[in-house]
Amino acid sequence: QVQLVESGGGLVQAGGSLRLSCAASGSIVSLLTMGWYRQAPGQQRELVADITSGKTTNYGDSVKGRFTISRDNAKNIVYLQMNSLEAQDTAVYYCNARPPWVHSGGSWGQGTQVTVSS
Q: What span, in angstroms and rounded, lies between the C-alpha atoms of 59 and 95?
C-alpha cells in the first residue's frame, strides 16, 4: 500500500503560480505512474497530469503549456508546477499512484485545495 501526502495548495491570484508536492511512501514508488487529478465542486474528477517511472508525461488539454509535472525518484516526491493560474483551475487537487499497467484506481492522497481568485 502506498501512502500519499499532498502539500502546497492555497489561495493565489489569477496569473500567479503555485507548486504542489506529493510525498509518497512505499518500497515500489519509483516503479509507479504518478499523477495529479482535480475535482471542482459539482464536477467529476479529471486528470491534470501524470508521469511514468521513466518520466514520460501526459497532460490534460486545459493545462497544457501552463502546468509541469515532475518527479524525484530518489526522494519519492512528485511535483506539479502551476503557472498562469486561472479561476477555472480552482479545485481540490489529488495525488495518485498506480502500477503502469493499470489505467484507473490506485492509491489516493487526501487532497489539497487550490483557489484562484479572479
A: 14
Residue range 10-64, pLDDT digits in tens: 999 999 999 999 999 987 898 999 999 999 999 999 999 999 999 999 999 999 9
Contact assessment for residue 34 and residue 20, using Cβ atoms and an 8 Å cutoff: no
On whether the CB atoms of residues 77 and 7 are closer than 8 A, the answer is: no
Alpha-carbon span 85 to 104, nearest angstrom: 27
Buried b (16+ CB within 10 A) or exposed e, 15-48: eeebebbbbbeeeebeebbbbbbbeeeeeeeeeb
pLDDT on residue 27: 79
Closest of 34, 36, 45 to residue 7, by C-alpha: 36
Looking at residue 26, its pLDDT comes to 85
Separation between Cα atoms, residue 100 and residue 112, nearest integer Å: 24
